[in-house]
Specification:
Oligomer: single chain
Strand order of the largest sheet: 1-2-3-5-4
Helix content: 55-70%
Strand content: 15-25%
Shape: elongated
CATH class of the largest domain: Alpha Beta
Number of strands: 5
Structural class: alpha+beta
Length: 168
């Protein structure tokens, strides 16, 4: 069982320390740098990265959260980022190792824009993800119907509370 408080993830043989905080995983920023660059000094690399990327540097206080993380020298306060902000840092890294992540982010972004234009694509993506997780077609169909019923009920309750007439 994974310890929800602290856990390591391993990427290409290197560890990224993470901690469960405020119902999210938070990752040590310098560990991400270490994995995606060949830098011998990830802290220095991160400082230079912030100098090159003004927008990253200006928003740094909103991007990182200092959290207490276990290290070889004991517990220390390290700058950590949630998943969204880890992707923001990755976007700024000019490294071949970061390119697969950047291409994936671009692909996902493009897919979401397509789903805005055609919402049925989102439903098809959800079905595919459930299939990949091993759920049966009948379970997936029941799940989708359950979501639709819950949305209808929520809308009806919202209309009732607001005093608006219900239109079916």
């Amino acid at each position: 069982m994974v310890d929800k408080e602290t856990a390591l993830i391993v990427f290409q043989g290197k560890s990224i320390r993470r901690i469960w905080f405020n119902d999210k995983w938070w990752f040590v920023a310098t560990d991400i740098i270490s994995v995606l660059t060949d830098s011998v000094n990830p802290s220095d690399y991160l400082k230079k990265l912030r100098k090159r990327d003004e927008a990253l540097n200006e928003g740094w206080g909103q991007i990182v959260t200092p959290l207490r993380i276990g290290t070889a020298g004991g517990v220390q306060t390290l700058n950590c980022v949630n998943t969204e902000n880890a992707f923001r840092i990755i976007q700024s890294i000019p490294s071949k190792k970061a390119e697969p992540f950047k291409r994936w982010l671009a692909k996902v972004g493009y897919e979401r824009v397509q789903e805005i234009e055609d919402p049925e694509l989102a439903q098809e993506r959800m079905k595919t993800l459930y299939e990949q997780k091993g759920y049966s077609k009948s379970w997936i169909d029941k799940r989708l119907r359950g979501i639709a019923v819950r949305q209808d009920l929520t809308d009806a309750l919202r209309n009732e509370v607001s005093g608006a007439p219900e239109i079916l």
